[in-house]
Amino acid sequence: MSAQDVRDLVKEKYGQAALRVTSGGSCCCGAAPADQHCADPITSNLYDAAQMGQIPDTAVLASLGCGNPTALAELRAGEVVLDLGSGGGIDVLLSARRVGPTGKAYGLDMTDEMLALARENRRKSGIENVEFLKGEIESIPLPDNTVDVIISNCVINLSANKDRVIGEAFRVLKPGGRFAVSDVVTRGEMPAEIRKNVLLWAGCISGALEENDYKAKLAAAGFERIDVEPTRIYHVEDARNFLAQEGIDVDAIAAEVDGKFMSAFIRASKPVAKSCCGPNCCS
Q1: Rounded to two decimals, what is the model's pTM?
Q2: Tell me, what CATH number does 106's domain have?
Q3: Which of 34, 59, 207, 224 could form a disulfide with 90 if both were Cys (CB 3.0 to 4.6 A apart)?
């Protein structure tokens, strides 16, 4: 599947999800509280009641994430935050509240339907330090060195050009800026066909990186202080029904899959610019 095919598939999926929310449904159980019916172990119960009470219901219902980067990222008053693949805006709105009126939260999304939903959620929330941008995460429409923190919620795994996404994230971050995203990753080797089917269940598109590959790509882009922290580790029982429908003997592959894919919080930092000390470096 080409990069353009992947992009078109993601755009279609998320566009349909946004339309389901605007028509009164939900696109998943991403932020559903425990007392609502939701069997998805990846997207359920990611946000607590206090967070959900701060934003419109339609932002909650539009969540398609695998984590809660706003709870794990250290956001400070006055900072500029960028959410890659912002969807219905849940993480942007929560971030905007945390950075306060002297800060700014941007959301970047390529899907018109999600952008329309996010902008309506911004209007409903009354939060003013928010801006939603149309664009692709492989080509961020912001200048160099303008963002303090980049967050994302289970979106980078959907890109067919992760090196480009990570490079763009590095470009727009200020020196000392932080990369703090939730994503689906794998751990260790597993047969390619099994990996494909498990990740189709876990992330809709089987593009998740192995955790050490993720670290290597961040390092190659120039990031430092790189860490991958598992937040939810999935077992074969979580995907049993889906895999069985795909004709896979779940018991036969259990040892090769169990505990090898997970949602994780990925942290990294852009190095702080070094001061000039040489006789000619400031000329």
Answers
A1: 0.78
A2: 3.40.50.150
A3: 59
